[in-house]
Prior knowledge:
Elements (H helix, E strand, L loop, with lengths): L16 H9 L8 H21 L9 E5 L5 E3 H14 L5 E6 L6 E2 L9 E9 L10 E9 L12 H4 L8 E7 L3 E6 L4 E7 L4 E6 L10 E3 L10 H11 L10 E2 L5 H11 L2 E4 L10 E2 H14 L3 E3 L16 E2 L1 E4 L1 H20 L1
Parallel strand pairs: 3-5, 11-12, 11-13
Antiparallel strand pairs: 1-2, 3-4, 5-6, 6-7, 7-8, 8-9, 9-10, 13-17, 14-16, 15-17
Amino acid sequence: xxxxxxxxxxxxxxxxxxxxxxxxxxxxxxxxxxxxxxxxxxxxxxxxxxxxxxxxxxxxxxxxxxxxxxxxxxxxxxxxxxxxxxxxxxxxxxxxxxxxxxxxxxxxxxxxxxxxxxxxxxxxxxxxxxxxxxxxxxxxxxxxxxxxxxxxxxxxxxxxxxxxxxxxxxxxxxxxxxxxxxxxxxxxxxxxxxxxxxxxxxxxxxxxxxxxxxxxxxxxxxxxxxxxxxxxxxxxxxxxxxxxxxxxxxxxxxxxxxxxxxxxxxxxxxxxxxxxxxxxxxxxxxxxxxxxxxxxxxxxxxxxxxxxxxxxxxxxxxxxxxxxxxxxxxxxxxxxxxxxxxxxxxxxxxxx
Length: 352
């Protein structure tokens, strides 16, 4: 007797990324469907990158290219692949007027042979590159602005469209390539998570309207840099490590070394992620436009906060495409605690 073919369980929501965004945009009287199309194309790029990440140990895509990027860092093969995949997925869609990437020195124009749209994108094609060869989580981060340079729809985008404060973003996306591929996006009205079902090649809604807890129980920072930190930064870490039952401390330390993965855990569970400036990198190491601002947009949309130590990340005016910044991001209460300690330390140093 033939055995019955086992049924394949449907994702728990059954709601695809494209359906969710289209239905959500019905509530906006000015919606044109272009933002929906942009997120869907980003999802397409994410599926291609996922395919290469999944077989990275089987094909010649691990390791270094031998090139040095604009940051002075060695370029991983997957870095380069992800960069070109995102550009190719978006440059012909008629949705984007200009792009900039962490892996590229200047702006990435849309070729004359393709139509141009109203969105300008800043992106980190593959965050956490140092984790690639060890099979740890890596990711993609994208910040989205509307075109503001002269010329109107269809005209060439410029650096002016990219060098913008984070508060002027109209959307942000990040993708994590880990045990599963997860895409998280925000249009400023909620943060929504989708998980890739590889059997059908679709992203399905896995959590709607994520809210970051007011406080968490973990802090995330590279304590290997302790020797290079200021006394103020050491006080912040000492605060989270100190025992105090009233404030539910000490916190536990969690640090992956991949910003997008560390942020995703912080977003879901609360707490704080910190990458301060130090003696090696006084202005910080993370890139404002490609990493800090998109994730700060996410954090704020979810009820959290993000600062550079004193100034809200979303209020910083970038001086250049590769502007660097310290970053403190996560639960509003925990970020506020860090800010208070840093402010008091600066005041004390000034008095002294």
